[in-house]
Known about the structure:
Elements: H1 9-27, H2 36-53, E1 59-61, E2 66-68, H3 70-98, H4 101-120, H5 124-142, H6 149-180, H7 185-192, H8 198-216, H9 225-231, H10 234-258, H11 267-286, H12 292-308, H13 316-347, H14 358-361, H15 363-377, H16 383-393, H17 400-425, H18 439-457, H19 460-473
Antiparallel strand pairs: 1-2
Helix pairs in contact: 1-2, 1-4, 2-3, 2-4, 3-4, 3-10, 3-13, 3-18, 3-19, 4-5, 4-10, 5-6, 5-10, 6-7, 6-8, 6-9, 8-10, 9-10, 9-12, 10-12, 10-13, 11-12, 11-17, 12-13, 12-17, 13-15, 13-16, 13-18, 13-19, 15-17, 15-18, 16-18
Amino acid sequence: MQMDFSVIIPEIAMVSLGVLVLILGLILPKKSLPRLGWFTSFSLIGILALVVLNWNNVGTVSGGLYLIDQFSQFFKVIFLTAAILVVFGSMAYVDKHLGGQAEYYSILVFSTLGMMVMASANDFITMYLGLELMTISFIVLVCFRRNDSESLEAGMKYVLLAGISSAVLLYGLSLIYGIAGTVLVVEVGMILAVQQSLPLLLVGVVMLVAGLGFKIAAVPFHMWAPDVYQGAPTPITSFLAVGSKMASFAILIRIFVLGMFGVSLSWGILMAILAGVTIIIGNLVAIPQTNIKRLMAYSGIAQAGYILVGMVTASQAGVKAIMFYGFIYIFAVVGVFTAISYYYNLTGSDEIKDYAGLSQRSPLMAATMVVSMLTMAGIPPFAGFVGKFYLFMTVVENYLWLAIIGLIMSMVSVYYYLMVVLVMYRDRPQDSSPIVVSLPVRMTLIFTMLVSVVLGVYPGPLSEIINKAALSFFMH
């Protein structure tokens, strides 16, 4: 059987780009290395264009092990968009704090490749390979500041807990394989629908939830997030918060919605409880935080809970809601962390109190942080309101209590986001000199802010695209 390579051109391009950036790092003179950021970002834009142009070029590779449909294509758009924004927003940070530009950009490309593989994987082995490529890349990136004790500590914590979670996930997958006798997700779903091995299946499902729960930072598997978010280089924190989370949701959807659709176990109730607890703990523990990155870590935990709401019903509407919220979540998170990263470049501090008077020193940075935080809080007219509306609409009928929890906790999140806003707009700065924002950072801040506003006011076209992508997921 001849393999159709046209459907995996973006993946081939990503491999080529990652290797090319490493080679350029070896042959370019040292003074030219900062330009690698521009080269990487524009190359990623080109690959994103390939994905968009091949939107309707769907098919399978290797007998169905690798699946390209509009569902996976949309997730690839999410990953590539996040990578592009992170590269644009991190150039100044990389040049000042990290060095090793070629290694940094190359590993970031390979981590994105791992996410793309996860989105298209249609069997357990390919899923796990993509997951490990992403995880190993993030381990290197988290401890990239080799001379910083916090970064090294974050890397050690992440590698230990990531290893444990990967082992739990792999064992859960092996149990499911032992019951079904196949690694193909669709075939697993058909076989499990008539199997009666419930005790062993229950253990496998719990292990899958635990393994993937770590990747999305859901309670009680969230213990790594605050320390890793705080210690990792800030641009990597933003990519970890968006890319790793959404790639893991792509696997979660494929395994549970397709692979467990006929299972008599009530895993939807498990997802509902997990979502509710994650939303509550994430929002409440964020309140007393004084470090902006730790506050965003607990905010990210709460956001994982909101996205989990879409998993409860395992319906087309739920999948659509996850994809929509995941897309807008990119711009909110990257907008906040780009501002945090650039401000750290100037002050060397991530403490909230040191953001005093930021609105006077840089109105653009302060405005972007406000818009991004209110987007995550779900306040209209920003895009987060539409995303949360889609999510909670899927559970109102059968899980009204979960929608109520989400609504109350969204109001709680407004409180701790506004604490940051008050410091930026009410308090006086110790240094009143204006902050000159570099061109790539300015582009990133303006773009993320505009998208958060436009998609909140006019979400229709994006919603239609996602609806078709979600529909394609259920046509296998």
